[in-house]
Write a structure and sequence with these properties.
This protein has helices at about 10-15, 15-30, 35-50, 60-70, 85-95, 140-150, 200-210, 235-265, 290-300, 330-340, 350-365, 375-380; strands at about 55, 80, 100-105, 125-130, 155, 165, 170, 175-180, 195-200, 215-220, 220, 280, 285-290, 340-345. It is α/β, with parallel strands linked by helices. The chain has a seven-stranded mixed β-sheet with strand order 1-9-8-5-4-2-3, sandwiched between helices. Strands 7-6-12 form a three-stranded antiparallel β-sheet, with no helix packed on it. Strands 10-11 form a two-stranded antiparallel sheet. Helix 3 runs parallel beside helix 8, helix 4 (about 60-70) crosses helix 5 (about 85-95) and helix 9 (about 290-300) crosses helix 11 (about 350-365). Bound molecules: pyridoxal-5'-phosphate (PLP). Pyridoxal-5'-phosphate binds next to helix 4 and helix 5. Pyridoxal-5'-phosphate (PLP) binds near residues 60, 61, 86, 89 and 159.
Length: about 375
């Protein structure tokens, strides 16, 4: 058997007729950038999210940048975020003129540890980006309180968390702005690049629309200097089709996570946990093992696709060296980076494929000392 890490062609096969018709409609319309198709998608996505505004754009990275700019980030303002995230979270802060400041994560959630946030804040902190990594919702209540007390903007990076919920609300709908990516592999993926910012604030939405399209109030009248971060109409058409399936797909991901949990219950690995406040969307299913590299090699040799999200935490990325962080600054993120391993996770995965993956995991761990996490080794458990 062979189990790829992701299989986008299988998703296409499951809805090919719908997608072909939607894309064909755009081709025939002659309207290829923004326009009615994009407006319809914005309305439908805002409805799905339970908010009043969705502003479509060209990628998740541009969504984050536009949200920071619309929230008033100025040159030199500090923006706090998690040390364990995709590079785009930090890149967008810098592109908006800000300075990324990192906080370590909680090993139980893989998300920013709320108890470490206060001491990472300074006079210059103007925003916090909460990342719902892997589709696991971050604990938002402590953040909401801090943001309110300090008068700083709370922005959500929900690029991996379409359909996830925190205490009954969709993640992305909780802060001042929620940023989504529609990169093809995401829970809701375009057939190309795409992104969106959702917000309850009409003022934010207005600024986002200006920034997205060269600051155009009306044709060729530019009230501010913006960007070309518009969405292609074909992507909106694809997303409108796929949005109708999103809840069912998230449900399948949740079922897969439950099955992985059962099949790996006795394996000497750490499994992702769903916190009491969370309904996770399982964009990724990330396990942890002290013998990660050996396990990954074994899985590859058994034709099981695996991923690392992410092997180098943000504070140690070469591109961010100028920020002045060093090894040892965020010990949990650094340890997770060496232990995490993403298993295949997508709606179309079958029960037999997951059984095969778990058999391969058990075999791969067979020769190793069955320690659970690192407790037995150095007494400093990850949990
Ligand atoms: C994918 C992703 C982004 C960036 O989205 P793009 O559409 O690739 O620009 C940002 N943050 C996180 C956590 C992501 O996973």
């Amino acid at each position: 058997m062979k189990v790829p890490f992701i299989n986008l062609a299988a998703q296409y096969d499951s809805i090919a007729a719908e997608l072909d018709e939607a894309v064909g409609g755009v081709l025939a319309s002659g309207m290829y950038v923004q326009g009615e198709e994009v407006e319809r998608f914005e309305d439908e996505f805002a409805d799905y999210m339970g908010v009043s505004h969705a502003v479509a754009c060209s990628s998740g990275t541009s969504a984050l940048k536009l949200a920071l700019l619309a929230a008033g980030i100025n040159r030199g303002d500090e923006v706090l975020t998690a040390a364990n995230s995709f590079i785009a979270t930090a890149g967008a802060i810098i592109h908006a003129g800000g300075v990324p400041v990192f906080a370590d994560v909680d090993p139980a959630t893989s998300n920013m540890d709320p108890s470490l946030i206060e001491k990472a804040l300074t006079e210059r902190t103007k925003a916090i980006i909460a990342v719902h990594l892997y589709g696991l919702p971050m604990d938002m209540d402590p953040l909401i309180e801090i943001a309110k007390d300090r008068g700083i903007a709370l922005i959500e990076d929900a690029a991996q968390a379409h359909g996830a919920e925190y205490k009954g609300s969709k993640v992305g709908s909780i802060g001042l702005a929620g940023c989504f990516s529609f990169y093809p592999t995401k829970n809701l993926g375009a057939c190309g690049e795409g992104g969106a910012v959702v917000t309850r604030s009409a003022e934010m939405a207005h600024r986002l629309r200006l920034l997205r399209d060269h600051g155009s109030e009306s044709k060729y009248i530019h009230s501010l200097l913006g960007y070309n971060d518009r969405m292609a109409a074909i992507q909106a058409a694809v997303l409108r089709v796929k949005l109708k399936h999103l809840d069912a797909w998230v449900e399948r991901r949740r079922g897969h996570a439950a099955l992985y949990g059962d099949l790996l219950a006795d394996a000497p690995v750490e499994l992702p946990r769903e916190m009491p406040y969370a309904r996770a969307a399982y964009h990724l299913y990330v396990i942890r093992s002290v013998v990660r590299d050996k396990l990954a090699e074994h899985l590859k040799s058994m034709q099981v696709g695996v991923g690392l999200h992410y092997p180098v935490p943000l504070h140690l990325q070469p591109a961010l060296a100028h920020l002045g962080y060093k090894k040892g600054d965020f010990p949990v993120s650094e340890r997770l980076a060496s232990e995490l391993l993403s298993l295949p996770m997508y709606p179309e995965l079958t029960r037999d494929e997951m059984k095969y993956v778990c058999k391969a995991v058990s075999e791969g761990l067979g020769g190793s000392d069955p320690v659970h996490g690192r407790e037995a080794e150095d007494g400093v458990g990850l949990r």
